[in-house]
Write a structure and sequence with these properties.
single chain, 257 residues, 2-enoyl-CoA Hydratase, Chain A, domain 1, 4-stranded mixed sheet, alpha/beta, 6-stranded mixed sheet, 2 domains, globular, 16% strand
């Protein structure tokens, strides 16, 4: 697979990862999944990057899921599934803010990319769903993310029927965070990315790590852990700058320290 199947670019503090297989409905291959992991490492290790935006090429499909004619049809399927599972976990636990720019239909494995991100901004004409059941498969790994976002019975209805949902339905189910008309879509995405890039990098990193750590903890244990983490955040230079800027009625200048 040529490297252009997945594109990494950076616009100042914003890293963009684009699935660049428009002719194949932005279906993802096993090699693309592994390259995706490399790009996340690049974004995490670059201190200039403060937010990551994930999208698909063109204006019709965000991601249609796995490439059924690629490794799925060979003995490499198991390796691809494991790589994809590792990618979902990596993306879900990524220390910097992540935004899914859903610029078209989002189906099957594409749902995993979307739900693993912190925020999902979707065009109002995008369609969503998990059609795996229609070809004798089942949305296994992404189920872990679906049930972290959607009530069980609504999730099971979507999974078992394999029907496509509108962006309005996806919003009501909690799968996306914003539904935007096509004419305002790019402006809304840009506004959100710029707002995130202006926040404290260390504050958001410590906050995300803390929230990931308390998943599954009992209430008392979770609250105590978060109390300790707030004390850590409060000692950062960014916290001092943020409070000072608030008192001085000016915008803070965060350095990530």
């Amino acid at each position: 697979m040529p490297e252009t199947d997945l594109i990494y670019s950076r616009d100042e503090a914003i890293a963009h990862i684009t699935i660049n297989r428009e002719a194949h409905r932005n279906a993802i291959s096993g090699q693309a999944v592994r390259l995706f992991l490399d790009y996340l490492d690049r974004a995490e290790n670059n201190p200039a990057v403060r937010v990551v935006c994930i999208t698909g090429a063109g204006n019709r499909v965000f991601c249609s899921g796995a490439d059924l004619g690629g490794e799925m049809a060979t003995t490499g399927a198991a390796d691809m599934f494991r790589s994809y599972a590792r990618l979902l976990t990596r993306l879900y636990q990524f220390p910097k803010p992540t935004v899914a720019r859903v610029n078209g239909h989002c189906l099957a494995g594409g749902t995993g990319f979307m739900l693993a991100c912190d925020m999902v901004i979707a065009r109002e004409d995008a369609l969503f769903g998990t059609p795996e059941v229609n070809v004798g498969l089942f949305p296994m790994m992404i189920g872990a993310l679906i049930f972290r976002n959607v009530l069980r019975k609504k999730a099971m209805e979507m999974i078992l029927l394999g029907e496509r949902l509108t962006a309005k339905q996806a919003l009501e189910m909690g799968m996306i965070t914003r539904m935007v008309p096509q004419e305002n879509f790019d402006n809304e995405v840009s506004k959100v990315l710029s707002a995130l890039a202006a926040k404290s990098p260390i504050g958001m990193r410590l906050g995300k790590e803390a929230f990931n750590a308390v998943e599954g903890m009992a209430l008392g244990e979770a609250v105590n852990h978060l109390s300790d983490q707030l004390a850590k955040v409060a000692t950062t230079r960014d916290a001092t700058e943020g409070i000072t800027a608030f008192l001085e009625k000016r915008k803070p200048v965060f350095t990530g320290e």
